[in-house]
Amino acid sequence: MNQPHERASEPTVAQGATAILADFVSRFTFDDVPQNCIDASIRSLADTFCVAVAGNNEAAAKAALNYLDSAGLLSLSATQPKHAWLWGTQYFAAAETAAWWNGVSGHVLDFDDVTVPMRGHPSVVLWPALLALAQARNIAGTKVIAAFVAGFEVISKLSKAFAFEQYAAGWHTTASIGSLGSTLACCNLLGLSAGQTSRALGLALAQVAGARANVGSDAKSFQAGHANGLAVRAALLAEQNFDACVCALEGSNGYLQLYAQSAEVTRWLAELGQLPLELETSGLDVKQYPMCYATHRALDAVFAICKESPVEASAVRAIRVHTSNGALVPLVHPNPGTGLEGKFSLPYAMAAAMLDGAVNLQSFTDENVQRPQVAALMRKVTDSQALGPSNPRWAEVTLELTDGSVLFKRVETLRGSSSAPVSMDELFAKLDGCLAWRGSCVGTAAEIYQIIKQLPGQHDVSTLVLALSKLFKETKK
Fold first, then answer.
1. 109, 183, 223, 239: which could form a disulfide with 175 (CB 3.0–4.6 Å)?
2. How far are the Cα atoms of 81, 354, 422 from residue 3, in angstroms, in the given order?
3. What is the pLDDT of residue 389?
4. C-alpha distance from residue 269 to each of 20, 264, 265, 465, 477 (Å)
5. Residues 473/54, Cβ–Cβ less than 8 Å
6. What is the pTM of this model?
7. Is the pLDDT of residue 362 over 80?
8. Neighbour-count burial for 238-272, b at 16+ CB within 10 Å, e otherwise
9. Are the C-beta atoms of residues 301 and 393 closer than 8 Å to each other?
C-alpha cells in the first residue's frame, strides 16, 4: 500500500510557469540554503509555533477542535503511525488534519509573521503543513528547512508578480498564493519528481480558495488552515501518481487566468533559487501587535507621540491618520463589534492605543472592543490615503488636542520588520506573552527556541515535536 501507483510514463510538463516551478522544487536541497536563511527559518518556526499555541483558546480553534472530535478524527496516542501533533493540545491526527488545525490556530490571532510582497502571512501556510508531514513520515530536519525556504522562495516570486492586484481583486493572498507555495514545499519535502510536482499543482488548483470577505470572522483562519491541509493532500496524492493537469498555472483555464488576471510570471520565476534568496531580500516581518499589519505603522506613530509627549485620551479632540496608497484596504471594520472585527479596524487600533497605552492580546476580547469609551474615541478618528505608489509604505498620525496643540509623527520603517528586526530578547518577550495567553505551558520561549534550534540536526523531526509537546499540560476541548 505504500508503493506509488504506477503510471505508464511520467507526464510531460508544459513549458511554462508550472514547469519552472516543478523543476526548481524538485532540485532544491538543504545544500542550497545559506546559514542566514537557516537562522531565519528557526526564528520563523519559533514565532509561528508560539503564536499558534496562543490561538488554542480562541473560539475558532476550539470550534475546529470540536469539529474534528465529532468527526472521529482525533487520537490521544503519540505513537499512532503516520499521525502528527495538534500543537499545544494532547491530540494527534492524520497529517493533513493536523496541518489544517494548526493553520487555523496559527492564524486566528493575526499575530503571525508577514512578508510585504505577499500582502499576507507566509509562515502560517508553510510550517503547519511541513511539520505535520515530516512528523508523520519521520523526515529529517534539514529536509524540513529546505522545504520551508523553497516554499518561501515560490511565495515571494509569485507575490511580486501579482499579489497586489490579486489582493485588490478580493482574494486573501495568504491562502490564494500560500496554497501554491505550501503545496510545492510539501512536494520538496517528499522528494517528488518534477512530473509529480506538476500534478500536485494541478491538485492544488482544484482546491485553492480564500476571500477577503471573510476578514474579521473565523473563516479567515480557516482559509489559512485550508492552505495547509490542501497542500499535504495534493502532495500525498501526487506521490501516488494521482493524475491532474500538468499546466496548472498557464493556459486558458489555469490559475493565472482565473486568479491573477493573466499576470506575466516567468521573468520573476527565472530568478528562483538565485542568491540572495527571498528569505533574505524580501524577509519576514515579526508582528508586534496582534492585529492587521496595515495598522502597525500608525500604531508605532501614536506610541512614539505619546512617549515623547504623554497624552491622556480625554485630551484628544481628533486623530487623523494618513497613509501610503492601498494601506487601508484590509481595514474593513470601522465600527467593530467583536474582538476579531477589531483586528481589522483602524479606529479601534487608535482608540485602544490611546486608552490603554498598549495593543496586545488582551485588547481583542469582545468586552474590550465594546467599551463605551472606545466607541466615543473611535468617532474622533479619520483616515485617508495618498495617491501614487503603494511602496515604500508609510503612515502619518496627527493628534489634535483640546488645548489647541497638534502632535505629529510619520513612520516609514516599521519596528519588527526585516529592515528593523527585533532582538532575540524582544522576540522572546512576544513569545512569552503568547505562552502566558495560552496558559498551561511549563516551558518558556527561550526553552522552546532551544528545542527548535536543534531542527537541522534532527534525523527524525517527530523527536523534536514530541519534545515540544511535553511542555504543555493536558487540555480539554
1. 223
2. 17, 61, 46
3. 86
4. 7, 10, 6, 33, 44
5. no
6. 0.95
7. yes
8. bbebbebbbbbbbbeebbbeebbeebebeebbeeb
9. no
